[in-house]
Design a protein that fits this description.
207 residues; alpha+beta; Aminopeptidase; eight-stranded mixed sheet; binds coenzyme A
């Protein structure tokens, strides 16, 4: 049996619930993001108010396709998964998403990140996204192992911009159109609440 994966989740995780994030989750989401900035980007976190403003807006702009989901264990947010719009033309705007996975430092390496990304891949298939994308620092071993094991492709290395201290790989995941998705089933030990976000005027809905 390979190390990690679904079997590990069944053994290592207590029950976690994955649900849509709400504005009340803002502080939990930002705390986890701030704690992951160094490993994700190799820089010190920006001022907390900036992060709060940024994620509050993301929470407000959720649609059926795009948004943030939190992994909750015993009423505590232990990680979150974002899927954000990243293309600006009518063909790709609703079919390509940028993926972002963050797990609280005290909960890492217990399968929560894998469960969240599996959830995102399943969601992507359900809402007919065609592709997920992500930039991952070449030093971010946990993140690289995660995407490498879940069917993502390394497309290339991004050119370093300005004062970047880290180099980044560009990764993409082609969402299967049928039930062959890696994330076809939910890991044992996970419950998923598929409650939809409220509809905003002018927001995009596929189904
Ligand atoms: C990257 C991250 C989301 C992974 O979540 P996690 O819950 O810790 O990871 P999992 O337990 O699901 O394990 C996923 C894989 O990473 C490996 N892994 C986990 N922690 C690791 C570590 N510290 N060093 C090396 N590998 C590690 C696991 O062994 C597993 O790989 P395997 O299946 O080949 O065994 C999490 O570490 C995190 O939040 N990091 C900081 C934020 C960040 O960098 N996010 C990504 C931005 S692109």
């Amino acid at each position: 049996m390979r190390h990690g994966g679904i079997e590990m989740l069944a053994n290592a995780l207590e029950l976690i619930n994955i649900r849509r994030a709400k504005q009340q989750d803002l502080t939990g989401i930002v705390d986890i993001w701030l704690a992951g900035v160094l490993s994700g980007f190799g820089i010190s976190p920006p001022p907390t108010e900036n992060a709060l403003r940024f994620f509050a807006e993301k929470l407000d702009l959720q649609t059926e396709i795009f948004g943030i989901w939190v992994a909750v264990r015993e009423d505590n947010i232990v990680g979150w998964q974002g899927l954000y719009p990243c293309r600006n033309n009518p063909i790709e705007a609703l079919t390509v998403a940028e993926s972002s996975t963050y797990v609280s430092p005290t909960t890492r390496a217990k399968g929560v990140g894998r469960t969240l990304l599996l959830f995102a891949q399943e969601h992507a298939m359900r809402v007919q996204l065609r592709e997920l994308r992500g930039n991952i620092a070449t030093t971010n071993t946990a993140s690289l192992r995660l995407v490498d094991s879940l069917g993502w492709s390394k497309v290339g290395t991004l050119p370093r911009a300005r004062n970047d201290s880290l180099e980044f790989f560009f990764y993409a995941y082609a969402v299967p159109s049928d039930r062959k998705c890696h994330s076809r089933f939910e890991p044992i030990g996970t419950t998923v609440d598929r409650a939809q976000p409220r509809q905003r005027a002018g927001s995009s809905q596929l189904s």
